[in-house]
Design goal:
Distance between the termini: 23 Å
Helix content: 40-55%
Number of domains: 1
Structural class: alpha+beta
Largest sheet: 4 strands, antiparallel
Number of strands: 4
Number of helices: 5
Strand content: 15-25%
Oligomer: single chain
Radius of gyration: 17 Å
Length: 126
């Protein structure tokens, strides 16, 4: 589960970072990244309580889910399951794919913790 959590955080960071070198931007570097990860893993660097839930709305929940699901199950497969069912229940987002009426098959199911972005459940029926 820890590997999935780290993968998701990495994916989120990769989608927001620009990898082009720019001399006008400071770079913290890989050493700092490793130190930060060590702090977070030891519980000394959690800033999430200061910002509240990191997944605040349905659009963000869908964007995160799609980023993960597209890589695992394929973009065409997942987009054919639109419109999605999206529910916010307590501190969680739960999303399901849908199928056209009369169609037989499975859909994705994904649950995320809204507070920190962790994927707490993921499957796809057949």
């Amino acid at each position: 589960m820890k590997a999935i959590y780290l993968s998701i955080l990495t994916l989120l960071l990769l989608t927001t970072l620009n990898f082009q070198s720019n001399p006008r931007h400071s770079v913290l570097g890989e050493k700092y990244a490793r130190e930060f990860l060590t702090k977070v893993n030891k519980g000394k660097g959690s800033f999430l309580s200061q910002v509240g839930p990191v997944i605040k709305d349905q659009e963000t929940a869908v964007a995160i889910a799609e980023a993960i699901l597209f890589k695992i199950y394929g973009k065409d497969n997942i987009t054919r399951q639109r419109p999605y069912e999206v529910y916010q229940i307590s501190n969680h987002w739960v999303l399901f794919g849908t199928l056209p009426e009369g169609y037989h098959g499975g859909v994705f199911e994904i649950a995320m913790d809204a507070r920190d972005g962790r994927i707490i459940g993921l499957s796809h029926g057949k």
